[in-house]
Amino acid sequence: MSSDARQKLFFREAIIRALREEMDRNERIIVLGQDVAEFGGSYREFEGLFERFGRARVRNTPVAESAMIGLGVGAAAAGLRALVTITYMDFLMLGLDPLVNYAAKARYKTGGQIEVPLVVKTTAGAKGQGVAHSQCIEAWLMAVPGLKVVVPATPADAYGLLKSALRERGPVVYVDHKRLFPTAGEVPNEETLIPLGEAAIRRCGSDVTIATFSFMTRIAERSAERLAAEGISCEIVDLRSLAPLDMATVCGSAGRTGALLTLEEGQLSCGVGAEVIFRARESLANLRTARIGALPAPVSSNPILEAACIPDVERVTDAVRGLLASR
Amino acid sequence: MDRIELLRAMLLIRAFEAALMRRSDHGFQLLSEGQEAVAVGLCSVLGERDQLLTSGRSIAPALARGLEPGAVMAELLGKTAGPCRGKGGRGHLAQRSAGFFGAHAVVAGNLSIAAGVALAAQLQEPGTIVACLFGDGACGAGALHETLNIAALWKLPLLLVCDNNGYSVSTPRSEALAPKSLSDLAGPFGIPARTVDGMDVAAVRDAARELAERSRTGAGPVFLECLSERFASHSTAVRETRSAAEMQAIRKRCPISRLADNLEAEGGLSASARKQLEEEVRRAIAAAVRFAEAAPYPDPSEAVSDVV
Amino acid sequence: MIYKLVVPGPIEDVEEVRVLEWHGASGRAFEAGDLIVELETYKAIVEVRAAQHGILRALLCAAGEWQKVGLPLAVMSDDGAEALPDSLAAVAELPVEFEVS
Question: pTM value?
C-alpha cells in the first residue's frame, strides 16, 4: 500500500538520502574518500553524513586511490560494508588492481569463503576539465566477471540504485556523471530500491529505440523532442545497469521498432553499444543498428574540441534519420 | 610455542614442499625452502582471532598457521577438498576460519587489503591484529608506501612482515631498492620497525611477539624485516641464477638444521627424538598426499560458480 | 509600477533553483541592498537583494518550492495599494543584485 508522494531533490541530495538511510539501517557501512567528512564531498554529495555518523564511519583519506580501494576491499571482506568514493572516474584506474584483481575475484578464488560487499562510487564525464578528468570507461568495467556496474541518469535512480548497491553481496561500481549534478528530479518519499539489472523506458515510441545511459539519456530526450516535431517517434531505453545488462527490455523495444541506436559518451571501440548491439542481434533478425559515442580521441578541456568530441543533439538526430533511411 | 614445536613446524613445511616437488603434477609453485623460520616464527605469535595475509609464497605460512597439510595439498592439486575448492591454488590459498585470510598473487597486492582487514579488526575486534607477509620485491611498490601512510594515520593494528630473501626473482635487492635497510621504510611514517635474522626462528618469534603486542594495544602498525635466504629459484617457472658454490654456502645457513643442532647441543633434543620427529612429519605428509590424491576434482561447471 | 521578482541569472550550469528562505512576508518594503530571498542551486546559495525600493505583494513560490531561471518568484510593486494584474506577461522585472556563495 505505497503512496505515490514524491519530492523534488537535487541529484546530490538523492545520493545523501540513500546513504543516510542505508547507514542508519546498517551500522557497518563506512564511507572512505577524499574530502568526504567536514567538506561533504566535491559535489556536496556527502553533506551531513559526517555530522550524523561521525569520524569512524565517514573518513577522509589521503590522495591514494589504490590504497583507498584496497582498504575498502579489505574492510568489506572482513565484515564491514564499504563505500569508497573516487571523485573522478579517470583516477579509478589507479585502483583497478584491488578492484579487479581482488574484489571481483575474491569469492571465486576463495571458493566462496570471502565476499566483498563494496561499492566504488565514481563520477564520469566531460565538463571542461581536460583529458585526464573527462573519461567514461564504464565499458572496461562491465567486462570484468565478478563486478556489477550501475549508471543512474536521474536523482530517483541515483537514490534507488545506490541503496540496492549497498545491499549487494559483492562489489558494485556506481557511476554517475558531472553533468547530472546540476539536475533535479522527483524521488519517491517512501523508501524505494531499484533492482540492479533493470532498464527503464524513459519515453515510449514506435520508430526507433535509443538505448543509452547516464548523462546521454538527457541528450537522447532532447533529441527525441526535436525528432517528434519531424514526425519521428523515439523510444528511449535508459539502461541504468551495465552489468548485469537488461537485454530483455532492449530487445523488447527493438523488436517492436526494428531500429536500434546506442548512445554513450564513452568510446565506441569495445564500448557499451558494441555489446548491446551484438547481443540484440543474437536475438533479433532484421534489426537496423547504429552506435554513437565519443570521437576516438582524448577529450580536451578546450570547449570547441570537447564539444566536437562528445555526442550532442545534432549528431544523435542525424544518426536517427540516417538509421531510418537505411535498409 | 616451544622450540620443539617450532622445529616440528619447520620440518613439516620442508617435507611438504619436498613431497610436492617429487610429483610431476606439482604445478606453478613458489617454495619457501630456507624461509621456513620466518613463517613459523611469525605464526607462533598470532592468536586464534588474528588474521594473516600473504603474498604468493603461501605454502609455508599456511602450514605454519595451522592449516591441515592434506587440505593444503588438495588445494595445490586442484581438488575440491582444498579450502578454496581447488579454485585458488597456491597463489590465492585461504582459510579464513583458521585465521589465514589468504594469499594474493599480485606482488604488493595484499598490503592495502590487509590494512582494510585491520580497519575492520580495529572497529569490530579490538585487541586482535592483522599480519601481512610480503617479500622485498614488494617494497618498491607504491602500495607499500600508501599502506604505511594510512596505517600510521589511522593507527591500524597491522603487523607488516617483510621476508627479505635478497631477490626479486633474479634482481638482487641492491639493484631494486635504495634504502640501506628495508625497515628504514617505516621510520618516515613514525612506525616502529626492527630487522632480525630470518634464519633464526626464535629471533623472529621474539621480535614478532614484541611488535605484535605493541600493535595489539592500539598503538598502531609495526614493521618487521626478516633477513632470509631463498634456497631454490624464485619459482618453478624460472631458473636459478646463483652459482652452485653460492648455493652451497647459502644452504649451510639452514634454519632447521640450526635449531635442531642447537637443541641437540643443549640437550633439549636427543638424536633419537629428532629422528622420531622427522618420522612423524614424514607420516603426516604421506597421509596428506594420500588424502589429496583421493579427493575429487571439481565439476567443470564450477568454472562459472561463485563469480558474481 | 508592478514588478515581478524572477530567479536571477545566468548562473553557470543552473537551470532551476529551490527557494530556501524568504526574508519578509507580503507587505514588507525592501530598499536597495536588502536581502529579499535566498535560493538554493545544486551547489550554492544565491542571495537576491533588491537594487531599488519595492514592496512584496505576493509570493508565487513558497520556501521548498522550485522555479526555473528567469521565471517569477514573487510580485512586487512601488506602492502597496497598486492593483495586481491578472497576468505577469507584460510586467517588468524588478532590478536585483545577486551573489552566489
Answer: 0.96
